[in-house]
Amino acid sequence: MEIVVIEHALERMAERGATFKEIQQVIEAGQAVNAKIGRKAKEMVFDYDDTWLGKRYAQKKVKVVFVEESDRIVATDVYAFMVPGGRTCEYFMIRPMMSCILSLRILLKK
Predict the structure, then answer these.
(1) Which end of the chain is more exposed for a tag (fewer CB within 10 A), N or C?
(2) Which domains does the chain show, CATH number per domain?
(3) Is the CB of residue 43 less than 8 Å from the CB of residue 33?
């Protein structure tokens, strides 16, 4: 099935460091998570081991919000959560705002 990424999601991909290949993998094999009524969402954790905005990260969790149509899947939003080395994604919540707060608390405890 064709995967279409709307402009808003393309902008979020660029801002948050997600790739189209990751979006495809998440939609095809990711774990289903809660989404707003009328939408679906899946997420997947990737080994990252790279630098993003000057900091090194071990993993990246990518979440895709999408709508299934009869002949295609339309990605409407994309989230990416970078996970520092020595941590795992189980420490990070899915909601972006809460993820930032929880991430900060974990990093401050180091």
Answers:
(1) C
(2) 2-109 (3.30.2310)
(3) yes
Q: pLDDT by residue (tens digit) across 54-107?
A: 888 889 999 999 999 999 999 999 999 988 876 655 544 444 444 444 444 444
Rounded to whole angstroms, the Cα distance separating 22 from 3 reads: 12
Residue-by-residue DSSP string for 89-103: GGGS-SSHHHHHHHH
Q: Is the pTM of this model over 0.70?
A: yes
Give 55-71 as a DSSP string. Answer: EEEEEEEEEEEEEE-SS
Q: Are 27 and 44 in contact (CB under 8 A)?
A: no
Report the 3 state secondary structure along 12-50: HHHHHCCCHHHHHHHHHHCEEECCCCCCEEEEEEEEEEE
Count of residues in the chain: 110
Structure tokens at 56: 């090194």
